[in-house]
Amino acid sequence: MASSSTTALCASVPGDPVGMRGPFGRGWAQIDPDRSTVVVAGGIGLAPVRLHLESLLAARRANAERKVVLIVGARSPAEILYPEQLDDWSQHFEVHLTVDQPSRGWTGEVGLVTSTLTRLGIGPGSAAALCGPEVMMRVVASDLVAAGIAPDAVEVSLE
After folding, report:
1. Cβ-based neighbours of 95, under 8 Å, separated by 6 or more
2. pLDDT tens-digit profile of 32-47?
């Protein structure tokens, strides 16, 4: 069943006025090629950080010493976005995948992204980009600040 917006748009004819809102949000901070970065994406939060990850990849190619860590959480393995691209990123980044509910054959991590974060030794001088459910970002941001990352170096974006 189509939404009322879709129905109204399909019923319109050329010349009808169409209301629009946006753009919403803002981009991620300018990338410092010398600063290590952690990106934490929960659920569909990987989609909004995808372009940022591509920028981080370009910056990492310019400075191979730069550490980039990507942590992706999903409810189940079937809900992990961009599996082929994650394989590619894992050639350049430290990539951690975790799921809440493993399926048969899953050999990866099980649990919240916050449990993965505590084992990585990310600390002062790093930057962070977070996107996903609000509760996840609140806990992860708090953990990152507690690990010594400056609060203004932790960016959050609600999915």
Report:
1. 69, 70, 72, 86, 89
2. 777 889 999 999 999 9
